[in-house]
Each structure stands twice: as structure tokens, then as C-alpha cells.
Specification:
This protein is α+β, with helices and mostly antiparallel strands and 757 residues long. It has three domains: 150 residues, Aldehyde oxidase/xanthine dehydrogenase, molybdopterin binding domain (Aldehyde Oxidoreductase, domain 4), CATH 3.30.365.10; 173 residues, Aldehyde oxidase/xanthine dehydrogenase, a/b hammerhead (Aldehyde Oxidoreductase, domain 3, Alpha-Beta Complex); 299 residues, Aldehyde Oxidoreductase, domain 4. It has 19 helices and 26 strands. The strands form six sheets. It has a seven-stranded mixed beta sheet with strand order 3-5-1-12-9-10-11. Strand 9 and strand 10 form a beta hairpin. Helix 16 packs across helix 17.
Length: 757
């Protein structure tokens, strides 16, 4: 194994001092001369026509500088997902409670709030639909009767089904005929919030030259720039987006959110305008995840080989198609080799807040279903759950759902590591149980660029367009340092905005270390080649006789014959080739799967139904740990989010109106430190062929498996199978007492007929 100098070693974050001393600048810290404050008026109806909006009283209030409504924007459609199905602010119709209807810019926040209260809106109610199972049945009203007119329409059944994705292989019917055991089940997952600490925020500032400066808490500055240009009907070149420090996003801040409101107000007033969501608005304005209903049918032989699967998942996307139902197809098989399958995934409109992304949208939902289902099958066959998984696990050379060949990976190593660490199989005493789950994901790709400048003092400046999330700048700096033989403190990570930095994809989807890191490594190697070329000319030896390490370029056979990077940088200023700058750009990288195995031990109080997780172990193939301390932090954070999803977190939505009933961290129950055991991590390193120094993605996978592992542990402890999240005390107690709560049934026959017609 290579002897790495920088990667593979734990480093504190490159921005640690700014963060711990409070010097880091967030959007809330931006104060510009003459800045106004923005507040929003939102819909009180889940579905209604806007008959009139009277803003006169608000405009007359002293201190109010501007009021805008939907018709002040260009008549432009945009989309957060594959379909352009929404306007940035409601014009003639509202589709969910909380949809923005008007915005005010005033001298201060109190005045803006008073003005919002003075705006009078007259609505005419329209029948709504809140239940996605009703919405897709064909017996409800259509949320968007003009669905077929939307740009992007095509992968849909019509009605309220806005997208339908599919994947087939083999002969499913014959596979079921050849099976000795067939298991058919439905699972249900709950609406859930990303739980980021910093609410959405933005400052917009119209410059004297007519350009618009946007300071945003965003994971995707280039995406915000493009969508903002679309809804404002302005050239992309007319907008600059600066991604500020971000207090959590987890996918929620990937796309245009509230930036268009202060932007238009700034254009109309000529003054800077700031908008910061309240915590309530963080729950009701900006794309959480909504419920998912999943039908699974699996056929197996009596000796435990899976032959066939049919999976149908119904994703509630709310009023607009945001982060859609692709996970329903991509993850309907789990980490298993199944020769015959039919996978269908439906996105369904309802009159609720639209969905956003959250740690690989929908994958945790599918993993809860498939991994609970896997345990059910194993128990029906009388097999140990881990051995059943090992028997059916994907192997190198198998074909993934997307048609790619499975490359070398650490799936088997993660399962065996978990098995050894937890001492499986084992049986705990009455009321205690152990459960496992296996998760699968991929290392994200997409447009990635990087530039590296060698400075006159021998340090380097690294410029990328990616936004730092969870210490990703530190990992990128380590990659650059390793490639050029430098210490981490010799790498300066430059501040960036969309004018300065080269275009790159958003910071999310497990693509930063894998894809952006590869671009950084390539840029460093480009800079290294130029350094070697210049040094070869000065030292009078061929470039291939040189090496770059320890802050210098030296002759491999005679290390004292060398030049340090500072000398070479200064020489380059007057050289024929010019200053040393390494660049790289790529659009995609090959498929690199990520696998993990997780295990939970629980205690179930049979008198109250209360579940306590006493131990949690996870093993993940991370390829190569660039920064082990950072990797462990990501693994632990994901696991804690998954435990919260499993046991307590749920956005409560009114079944009649679609209104969010608990828009507060006091009533949305995220786990506290006392609710979570110490997370035991096992880092499995099976290098990927294309990631930087073999690295794979890390961050999203740990959040997938905890709900299934905990549900399986509850079954092991008290013999009840819970198929609905969260695994609350009330739900567990009802199951123990033989009562049925919250039945959700996917009518697979009805869906099959709809597809046929």
C-alpha cells in the first residue's frame, strides 16, 4: 500500500479556527448600507384560486419600501426536479398551505411583519387531495389538471402521477413460479425534516451596473444562479451568487428556495434586501420529505436463493415535483443479486408542501422496506438473517439495476466485519434484541472543476466551485497536498463565488470527495507536470528523472539536486510557459458503489412500548479514508439522523388540509445525545478505481439503515413486526397488544392496470 503523507491521517478542518472563534460569516452576518428586511405572506389554503390581493394598506405603512406579488414576476415556469411545474410565487392559484403569495421589504423586520398582516387576499377554495394513495387512485381531484402541458412531462401515467420510473430484467412471472416461498408486504415511511440548524437565508444587492449580487446559504450556487436567471428573466451573466458559510443543509439547500424574493425586491428598490426564514418557515416553506408507501413481493427457493422481485413505491411529492422517486427503482433490490425483477416508482402530486432532497432522497425509505422485508424472508425460511444476506449479496461482475457491472467493492467485507464485531448470530435475553441492515449507494458524479496556483512562497492556492459541507474543503486540500508533496498548512483554499470559481455541480449527492476530489487531484497533477517541466529545464535533467515532494522538486537519483516550489514559482513568472497553474475539468466518473452494514441492539419496554438503542455498530466501505476523523464524523452524523428517523422524528400533517402541525424543534422530536448510544465505526477500505487515491463517497449511506436495523431488533426482542415509521412507543405497544394502527395498503393490481392503459 502506498505510503501517504497527508491523506489517511486525521486533520482538524481548515476552517476550524473561524468556526470556533465565531469569525465565520453566515448570511445572517451580512449587513450592507441601506439594507431592507423582507418577510413573506403565505397561503392559508391548501388549494384555492386567488380572486384578489389588496396590498394598499401594507404599502401605505411608514417604513415599507416595496410589496410584490406573483404577477410582478415574469410569467415563467421552473422546476426543482425533472418537470417545470411551478412558478416562483403563486399567481392565480395556490396549491399548499404555506405557499408564498406576497413579499414585503421594509426598513426593519417588525415593520415588514406588520405590513404582511395588512395584505388582504380573497380566496376561492378548490377541492384538495392530501393522501397520496387516494391521489393516485384516479378517484380524486387532479392537483394540476394541466399536467400534460408542463415541460418535462412524458414519464407519467397522468392524473396526479407526475412521473413513473421503471426497470425490468428477466422473467418475473416465471421467477415467482419457480419460487418455493413468496412474501408480499407493504411498508410506510413518514414525512421528515432535514433538521438543519441554520434556516434558509439570503441577501440580494442590486449593483450600480445593474448586476445582482446574491449572498446565500446554499449547496448549489450555480444551480441557484441558473434558476434565478430563469424566474427573473435575466441573463446568467447578470447574477453573481456567493455561497456563504452554511449551518447544515443535508440536501435541502441544493436548489432555488427563497432567493427570488429579496432579489426582485432589491431590483425594485435599488437597495440590499435580506430574508431569513423563521424556524416555522423552515418547516413550512422549503421542501422536506413526505411519506412513501412501498409494496414488495419477493420469491425465494427453500434453500434461500432470491429468484424474483416486484417492487412498487409511491412517493408523495407534494404540490410540485422536487427530488422525485428515482430511489424507488434504483434501490428496489437492495444490495442483492436478483435475476428477475420488475420495479416501478411513482411520484404523486398532493396539496402539501413540495418535497426536497434529504441525504439521498428516498433511499432511506426504500432501505427500511427492503431490509425489513429481507429479515421477514430469512425468518420464514428459518435462516440466520446475516447468512441469508451473504448468500444473496451482489458480487464483482454482477449487473446493477442501472446496467453497470459491479466493480470491485467491500460489500462482503462490511458484512463480515459487522458479524465479527457484534458476535453474530446471538440471542439476547427477553425484551432485548439485535437487528441488522445492509445499505447500498453510489459515489456521485457530475461536472467538477478545479484550479491550483503555485505561489511564490511555495504554497498553493486551491480554487473550486464547490461549497464546503461537513469539512469537504479539508479533504480537497489534503488531496491537493498529497499530489504535490506538501503539508496541509501549505494549501490555501480560496473563497469563491460564481464569478470567480469555475462551474461545478452542487455540493450534495455524495459527489464532492469522489468527483470533485478527482478533479482536484487531476489539477494538482497538471500543476506538478508543469513544475517538473520547468525544473527539468533549470536542472538539466529529463522531467521523468524528477519527483515532487517535501515542498521541492528533486532529482530522484540525487535528492540534494533540487529546487523548492517557491523558487520555481518565482522563475515561472518570467518563463516562457508563464505562472504555474494546474487545471482540471470532468463531467462524470464511472459507477463506484458504496456498501455498508449496520447493527443495532435495543431494549423494548413491553409495558410502554418504549424502545432504547443500547448499541449501534456500522461498517462501511469508504475506499480510502482521506481524513479519518472527518469520515467518522460523517458516519456518526448519518447514523444519528437515521436513529431519529427510526424512533421519533415525524412531520405531523393534517389529513384534511395538508397543513404542517408541528413546525418547531420543540415538537419535531430529533434525538438528543441521551437518546443515542456511542456509535461504533468500522472503516473498510477497498479502493475504488477512479476516486482520488481510491476514495469512495461516505456521507449519505450511514443514514439509510438504522430504521430497518432497529425494526429488525424490535422483532428479535418482542416478536412484533412494525412496518410503519417512526417506531414510536405508541406504535410498538399497539403491536405488542395485538392492536393494528395506521394501515397503509398499496393496491398493486390497480397500479398494474393503470400502467397497462
Amino acid at each position: 500500500m502506498a505510503d501517504f503523507q497527508t491523506i489517511g491521517k486525521s486533520h482538524i478542518r481548515v476552517d476550524a479556527l473561524e468556526k470556533v472563534t465565531g469569525k465565520a460569516t453566515y448570511v445572517g452576518d451580512v449587513y450592507l448600507p441601506g439594507m431592507l428586511m423582507c418577510k413573506l405572506l403565505t397561503s392559508t389554503h391548501s388549494h384555492a384560486r386567488i380572486k384578489s390581493i389588496d396590498t394598499s394598506a401594507a404599502e401605505a405603512l411608514p417604513g415599507v419600501r416595496c410589496v410584490i406579488i406573483g404577477k410582478d414576476y415574469p410569467d415563467a415556469w421552473f422546476g426543482s426536479g425533472a418537470m417545470k411545474d411551478r412558478r416562483v410565487m403563486a399567481r392565480d392559484e395556490v396549491f399548499y398551505i404555506g405557499e408564498p403569495v406576497a413579499a414585503v421589504a421594509a426598513d426593519d423586520e417588525i415593520t415588514a411583519l406588520e405590513a404582511v398582516e395588512l395584505i388582504k387576499v380573497e380566496y376561492e377554495g378548490i377541492k384538495n387531495v392530501v393522501d397520496p394513495l387516494e391521489a393516485i387512485s384516479g378517484r380524486s381531484v387532479d392537483v394540476h389538471p394541466n399536467l400534460e402541458d408542463f415541460e418535462g412531462f412524458g414519464f407519467a401515467l397522468g392524473g396526479n402521477n407526475c412521473t413513473m420510473l421503471d426497470a425490468d430484467r428477466g422473467d418475473v412471472d416465471q421467477g415467482f413460479k419457480d419460487s418455493d416461498v413468496i412474501v408480499e408486504e407493504t411498508y410506510h415511511t413518514q414525512p421528515i425534516s432535514q433538521g438543519f440548524l441554520e434556516p434558509m437565508a439570503c441577501v440580494a444587492d442590486l449593483q450600480a451596473n445593474g448586476r445582482l449580487d446574491i449572498y446565500a446559504s446554499t449547496q448549489g450556487p450555480y444551480q441557484v444562479r441558473a434558476q434565478l436567471a430563469s424566474v427573473l428573466d435575466r441573463p446568467i451573466s447578470n447574477i453573481k451568487v456567493t455561497a456563504m458559510e452554511m449551518g447544515g443543509g443535508f440536501g435541502a439547500k441544493l436548489r432555488l428556495a427563497l432567493e427570488a424574493f429579496p432579489a426582485l425586491l432589491s431590483i425594485k428598490t435599488g437597495r440590499p434586501v435580506k430574508l431569513i426564514n423563521t424556524r416555522e418557515e423552515a418547516f413550512t416553506l422549503n421542501g422536506p420529505r413526505l411519506e412513501t408507501n412501498i409494496y414488495l413481493k419477493t420469491g425465494v427457493t427453500k434453500d434461500g436463493k432470491i429468484l424474483a422481485r416486484e417492487a412498487r413505491s409511491i412517493f408523495d411529492v407534494g404540490a410540485y415535483l422536487g427530488a422525485g422517486p428515482n430511489a424507488g427503482v434504483g434501490h428496489g433490490l437492495g444490495a442483492y443479486s436478483i435475476p428477475n425483477f420488475k420495479l416501478r416508482s411513482y411520484g404523486v402530486y398532493t396539496n402539501k408542501i413540495y418535497v426536497g432532497s434529504y441525504r439521498a432522497s428516498g433511499v432511506a425509505d426504500m432501505t427500511f422496506a427492503t431490509e425489513s422485508h429481507t429479515d421477514v424472508i430469512a425468518h420464514k425460511l428459518g435462516m440466520d438473517p446475516m447468512e441469508f444476506r451473504i448468500k444473496n449479496a451482489l458480487s464483482e461482475g454482477d449487473m446493477a439495476v442501472n446496467g453497470s457491472a459491479i466493480p470491485k467493492n467491500g460489500l462482503m467485507e462490511t458484512m463480515l466485519a459487522l458479524k465479527e464485531k457484534m458476535g453474530l448470530p446471538k440471542k439476547l435475553e427477553e425484551g432485548r434484541g439485535v437487528g441488522i441492515s445492509v445499505g447500498e449507494w453510489r459515489s456521485g458524479s457530475g461536472p467538477s472543476t478545479a484550479a491550483i496556483s503555485v505561489n511564490e512562497d511555495g504554497t498553493i492556492s486551491l480554487l473550486t466551485g464547490s461549497v464546503d459541507i461537513s469539512g469537504s474543503d479539508t479533504s480537497l486540500a489534503q488531496i491537493a497536498a498529497e499530489a504535490l508533496g506538501l503539508r496541509l498548512d501549505q494549501v490555501v483554499v480560496a473563497a469563491r463565488n460564481t464569478d470567480m470559481a469555475p462551474f461545478t455541480g452542487p455540493s450534495g449527492g455524495s459527489r464532492i470527495v469522489y468527483s470533485q476530489g478527482r478533479a482536484v487531484q487531476n489539477a494538482a497533477e497538471d500543476a506538478k507536470a508543469k513544475l517538473l517541466e520547468l525544473a527539468a529545464d533549470r536542472l538539466g535533467v529529463p522531467a521523468d528523472a524528477l519527483e515532487c515532494a517535501g515542498g521541492a522538486v528533486y532529482v530522484q537519483d540525487n535528492p540534494p539536486q533540487s529546487m523548492n516550489l517557491g523558487q520555481l514559482a518565482r522563475m515561472s513568472l518570467s518563463s516562457r510557459g508563464g505562472p504555474i497553474i494546474g487545471t482540471a475539468s470532468l463531467s462524470s466518473l464511472p459507477y463506484a458503489p458504496v456498501f455498508n452494514a449496520q447493527g443495532a441492539e435495543v431494549i423494548v419496554d413491553q409495558e410502554t412500548g418504549q424502545v432504547r438503542v443500547t448499541r449501534f455498530v456500522q461498517a462501511q466501505d469508504i475506499g480510502k479514508a482521506i481524513n479519518p476523523m472527518g469520515v467518522e464524523g460523517q458516519l456518526e452524523g448519518g447514523a444519528v439522523q437515521g436513529i431519529g428517523r427510526a424512533l421519533s422524528e415525524e412531520i405531523l400533517i393534517d389529513k384534511e388540509t395538508g397543513k404542517v402541525r408541528n413546525p418547531s424543534l420543540a415538537t419535531y422530536l430529533m434525538p438528543l445525545s441521551v437518546d443515542v448510544p456511542e456509535i461504533e465505526n468500522i472503516l473498510v477500505e477497498v479502493p475504488s478505481a477512479d476516486g482520488p487515491f481510491g476514495a469512495r463517497a461516505v456521507a449519505e449511506s450511514p443514514g439509510f439503515g438504522p430504521p430497518a436495523a432497529i425494526a429488525n431488533a424490535i422483532y428479535d426482542a418482542v416478536g412484533v413486526r412494525i412496518k410503519t415509521l417512526p417506531l414510536s412507543a405508541e406504535r410498538v405497544l399497539a403491536a405488542i397488544q395485538g392492536r393494528t394502527e395506521d394501515e397503509y395498503t398499496v393496491d398493486a393490481d390497480e397500479l398494474r392496470k393503470a400502467e397497462a392503459t
